[in-house]
Amino acid sequence: xxxxxxxxxxxxxxxxxxxxxxxxxxxxxxxxxxxxxxxxxxxxxxxxxxxxxxxxxxxxxxxxxxxxxxxxxxxxxxxxxxxxxxxxxxxxxxxxxxxxxxxxxxxxxxxxxx
Amino acid sequence: xxxxxxxxxxxxxxxxxxxxxxxxxxxxxxxxxxxxxxxxxxxxxxxxxxxxxxxxxxxxxxxxxxxxxxxxxxxxxxxxxxxxxxxxxxxxxxxxxxxxxxxxxxxxxxxxx
Lengths: 114, 113
Known about the structure:
The complex is a heterodimer of chains A (114) and B (113).
Chain A: E1 5-7, E2 10-13, E3 19-24, E4 31-37, E5 43-50, E6 53-56, E7 65-68, E8 75-79, E9 88-95, E10 104-105, E11 109-113
Parallel strand pairs in A: 2-11
Antiparallel strand pairs in A: 1-3, 3-8, 4-5, 4-9, 5-6, 7-8, 9-10, 9-11
Chain B: E1 4-7, E2 10-14, E3 19-25, E4 30-38, E5 45-51, E6 56-59, E7 62-67, E8 72-77, E9 86-94, E10 102-103, E11 107-112
Parallel strand pairs in B: 2-11
Antiparallel strand pairs in B: 1-3, 3-8, 4-5, 4-9, 6-7, 7-8, 9-10, 9-11
């Protein structure tokens, strides 16, 4: 069974540009989460999808971040326009319903904004 | 909201020794406490978890203990090996619909051969 897959693994963009990160969850997992780790600090929650619906987006830092999960399969996280403080590692995780089951993480996308 | 503190931030042990990492949490409603291991270039991988109705759980060389009264939980690794070297994260999750995880700051464990 394929794990959670994230694309790209690395991205270097200039301040003001747009970047789109993609996450393919484990097949059949209805829960999909985005987290990020900035500058070696703790991993912080960004948002949670159940199928195609946003269940909780309380962790999204501001309106420059837009997440979608069309059709309840893969998800994208767009940052537009990117700022220097957006640099970090963005993780995607997925799990079965109901909530409370083990979450499997992808390898992460390292985003560097210069 | 929940706040998770993790100590130490770095830990260096000799191969064969034990390693202990401690975490405290603030929300008494939290009831699920997983531990993740992150190796270089990889995502966090669940190594063990414990729920609030259990005080201790063991899986071969790793064990986790939970003290709900004091709101702290610990990871114990015995007979450490060089391949145990990684960053370890504790996390807590409350009784919320989404099971969102709140992570500690991570511990970089180095096992010297």
